[in-house]
Amino acid sequence: MKHFLTTEDLERETIEGLLDDADGFTEVLKRPIPKVPALRGKTIATMFFEPSTRTKMSFDKAAKALSADTVAFSPGTSALSKGESFKDTALTVRAMGVDLMVVRHKATGAAWRLADWLDIPIVNGGDGAHQHPTQALLDCQTIRQRFGSLDGLQIAIVGDIKHSRVARSNVFAMSTLGAEVTLVGPPTLLPVDIASWPVSTTSDLDAVIPNVDVVYLLRVQTERGGASVFPSFAEYAERFGMSNRRFAALKSDAVVLHPGPMNRGVEISHDVADDKRALILEQVSNGVATRMAVLFRLLGGERDA
Ligand code: NCD
Question: Less CB within 10 Å around the terminal CB: N or C of the chain?
Answer without folding.
Answer: C
